[in-house]
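Researcher: Here's the sequence for the chain we discussed earlier.
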Amino acid sequence: MIRLMLFFYHFMKIKRTIVLFIIFAACVAATQAQSVSQPNSLDMENLVGKVKRIEEQTAEMKLKNGKLVEGSRSPSRTVAFDKEGRMIYRWWKIGELPPTETKFSYEKDNKRIERTLRNNPLADFTKGPRESIGQSIFRYVASENALYRDVYPGEQANVNEPPRFAAQTQKYKYIFGDNNRLLETVDYTMDDGKESTRDKNIYATERLPIQRVLITRGSPLKETIKYTYTLDEQDNWTKRVSEDTLADKNGTTIFRVEYRKITYYK
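Model: Thanks. This is the structure I predict for it:
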């Protein structure tokens, strides 16, 4: 009888150890899966697949005899990504402003620190282009499925010296939903830490947003942008038509069409 009791005691002890190990392994696996699903630059761009580079052209559309007529196209944006889905290069141009070129780098500890070298689109270009350097630190909060971005301006005396960064000047929050679809982008003011603007993506059953709503603090009016798409085999858009209703009393509406060339990693 004593032997039977000892056998039962050791059996229950081994069984308890196995159960605890299974629970621990499940927790580790869940943590790793959560880490793998952390949003990256491709998610922030609403891109899927092994995207290497995108090149975009934009054209204004105007009503003529009751029909939308497309104007001439002009390059508007080029973005490159590494194999981990992180943005490494961006060229973009808005309206008549000079283009802005940005190069990104990341630290080895995967803190998602971004250092950029760019031309200032608001600078006086009569003396030639000027370069500035800044740093963006990304922090992921799994419970919110959100990325926080803190921006620090900097300066670099020469290429042989490390850059020096000043106090934080901007703060952003990127909120994601199922399958890491970008839901909202929030911009905060540094003076009071309160929300300045909120950019909301609205989805139906599609993976891409059918509408964006831009809300600015202190303004009773909202800017809304409606989208229609043409997609490639990877389910990324190659043509996007937008109907932009500005946040003014007249409800001014601007129509645009964007074309995108996408290069994928093999």
